[in-house]
Amino acid sequence: MSFLAIRNLSVRLKNGPALLRRVSLDVAPGEVRGLVGESGAGKSMIGKAVLGILPPSVQITEGEILLDGTDLLSLPAKESRRRIGASCALIPQDPLTALNPSHRIGPQITDRLVDILGWTRAAADARARDLLTEVQIADPARVLRSYPHELSGGMRQRILIASAFAAEPKLIVADEPTTALDVTVQKQILRLIAGMQARHGTALLFVTHDLGVVSKVCQQLSVLYSGLVVEDSTVADFFASPRHPYSAALLAATPKYTDPDAGLHPVPDAVIDAVRAEVAAFDRTLAKGVKTHG
Amino acid sequence: MQILRLTILRLLTTLVTLAGVAVIVFFVIRVVPGNPIAMMLPPGATEADIARLSALYGLDQPLVTQFGIWLGGVVQGDFGTSITTRQPVLDLVLGRLPATLELSIMALVMAVIIGGAAALIGTRGRGTRTEGAVDVANGMALSVPDFLWGLVLMLVLGVLFPVFHISGRVTPSLDLPFVTNFYLFESLVRLRFDLWADLVAHMFMPALALAIPLAAVIGQLLKQSLKETMNLDYVTLARTKGYGETHVILREALRNAVLPTLTLVGVQFTFLIGGTVIIERLFSYEGLGNMAIDAVINRDLPLIQGIVILFAVIFTAVNLIVDLAYAVLNPRLRHA
Amino acid sequence: MLRRRAGLRLWLSALWLAALVLAALLAPWISPRDPLTQDLFLARLPPFWVAGTEPGYLLGTDSLGRDVLSRILHGARVALLVALVAGGITCLIGATFGLLAGFLRGWVDMVISRLIDIWMAFPPVLFSILLIAVLGPSLTSIIIAIVVIDWTRFARVVRAEAMAQGAMDYVASARVAGRGRIGTMLREILPNVLPTVVVLLTLEMGIAVIVEAILSFVNLSISTDDPTWGGMISEGRTSIYQAWWVLVFPLIALFLTVLAFSQLGEGLKDRFDPVLR
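Above: the input entities. Below: the structure tokens describing the complete assembly.
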């Protein structure tokens, strides 16, 4: 059984356009699913919905988010927040803004272990040191006493990764975790996340626009266009033969590490038009009230 | 190191400002019409009597000489002698200062509590009717100055529902054991809670009147910066950790949101202290401001000078403290 | 929804102020009594709905038997006169200083900024009382005191605004096109700081009304006989337990007027500033 199951999730801007169109997907325990699409396709929105941190300007209009079999959306806000806190974590996009500038690093990792999960202070501190060692930070004791502005971006992202794994969550949402970093650091961080995921057996929802990253880290993937899941398959199948013309074009537009000189093929206009027409047709059938299965 | 340099720089500009205040006060009040000496003497006094007394107070010298003598005294802590009470100005002023300080600090505490609560409630209910209500209340409180709030409070809580005293600092018939003029503080130290309650019952309305506009400023600014902070990534991250909304606001957002509010609150606090002058008069509270108005009405030049200089010192000191507090609270400046 | 509420606020304020202007202009004709006539037999009559009053004294009488309503109407004249004249002159002087400091910079800015700093170190109420004591209590003194104390309000804001505008490209292009410094200031900068100045002026008028009331309250305004709201409040304060109406009605008039000026200013600010809206 899958740990996370999203069923027919629709999200729209209040009084505005749809952002997610009946999205369904599954993440089994220990599995890594990539969410791929251009910016604005709604891939980050899925992660935010799962973690209950959608901005107040958007609303969920239908669907279920089943976490370990319980629908989060049917629970009172407090209870769903408690469940999310107990079994999920986020690796945010921008390490420079994701640490509180007025607290030291240590408490930012350990406080929730003590406050919410009831650990002893000593156990939490020991855990934080171990984790920082695991993410290859040389002097954990010093870093734990530092303020965020004293550390580099790569270092802060390592800390955020360590913090995400601190309570051994069942599921981690990684929201484009390497986009804000230097190219040189990106690879290390990616390898780090993949290694941590494998060692801890954590399920991972990996939001990215980079198919190259997906091929390295993920087993499953969902390709989104304008909030619609156009392809849902295993990574191996996808790279062998993408089923949807849009995702095939997206794949063709990705630079290949094996053959960097092959040249890029931007997604052709005809494919874009076709997928737009598909979204429009989807909206029309929805408006008619005809049930479809996405 | 940086803080030290900042302190020295600020102290220097403060000195320049204070010198400017001293010059202006001295020369402005020398233009006061009406001879204060003539007012002190009985109606039958002769010109010679007036001249003798003028010489005694140094008022027969040229202005610049008078200024020199006065400034020389001030530097040594001698602010001259009050013409009406014939007591040293410094003693009079310092005797009243504690009453005004206690009132101002009480008002500041009230403003921080009320304004802070308004900001937190408004942030907690952002986008709902609660926030709208907080905004309207803030707008009202900000539009009307302390003088009018004082009158309104006096009518409602002094006359209509007589909960608090409308005049004085303490009930006159009470036997006061105090050795300092910090009555409120000393009553606590001596565990005389009966006296403390009486002092608070007198101080409550003037302090609240002073606090209302400042509370509105704090409420508005703090809510604004809290709302901005609540959209930042580290606050979102804290939410995913399972913390409740109130905890997120208090622990993650508040400290970073307080910094931009702090500087402006400093300036506003000096406005509050300036407001004590009229509020003390309104509630017949025996502080510096009330004494200042009497001094102006009685043309007591040395006393006026002393009081205005003291107010200016308090104003600049508050600004200095705020600047330094900002530097200390901001970890980026502290460790740079 | 928010726009409509803001619009309502603007209209209500303007309505109250318009009514006040009318009352002030027509005070000699619409006042039921002479505001100065004393009649000790009619002292401390309560307002019309309370038992034991005389007909014709709608809002009661004060301790000298003068009609409260008539005194409020005449008091509006003093309040509005101070608001207009003091507000206007303060605005003119303060905005000029601010414009000069913000646009010319250099030593002009240094001198004006230091002056502002010194001014900010004075408690304003004490400063105004001091000035009135020096100048002698009169309407002119009040206006002078307000101008002398409050010019910094305009100077500070206009200086900052002029500095911000001066850094913009359109100012540079005007200079390149050959316009002189003063010409650029008046034709390019001034129109852009004008909305701010109008808002400040509205707020300043409310402040002027309050300052006049405060000075009347400490008996330093015009002669205590003349009807002013602050003077009435001061008198009402002493008889607060015997005749609350002597304090309450002028207080309401003062409260609403101050609120109206400030709400008008805030409303205009929202109108002028598209970002805030």
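Note for the figure: Chain B has 14 helices and no strands.
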